[in-house]
Amino acid sequence: MKIIFALTLFLGSLSFAQQTSNSEIEKPIRNLFLAMKNADSELLKTVFADAAILQTITKDGVKTENINDFVSSISKMKKDDLDERISIEGIHTDGNLASVFTPYSFYFKGKFSHCGANSFQLVKQNGDWKIQYLIDTRRKDNCKELN
Q1: Phi and psi based region of residue 138 (left: phi greater than 0; alpha: psi -120 to 50; beta: remaining)
Q2: Which residues cross the membrane (predicted)?
């Protein structure tokens, strides 16, 4: 009986550690979308690593966006103009590297605009997870609206 209890306790602690680790990894991602929704450029600046890369896959190839331009564009919005709803489908880690895949649906001023998927690469720097690389797709067809 003691062995079963000890094994259950051990496996439970592993599960808790994984959940805690995942919530730390998710934090900058969730803060990114919270900052967008609230048009909070100060919060937005905290989620990216210094040399972060932001890209979108378009029909013509890959478009790179300057992080400072992105932050500036968000600061010009009003609260609740931008609402990107995500579903975290996978988190993979190796030391200070994490990869996160999030399908999303995007709403502009309350109206559905488009959907797609985000692929995040995060790095842990000075104890905090930061978005180093973000690439996304955008489409208007075959969309599943997320709540």
Answers
A1: beta
A2: none
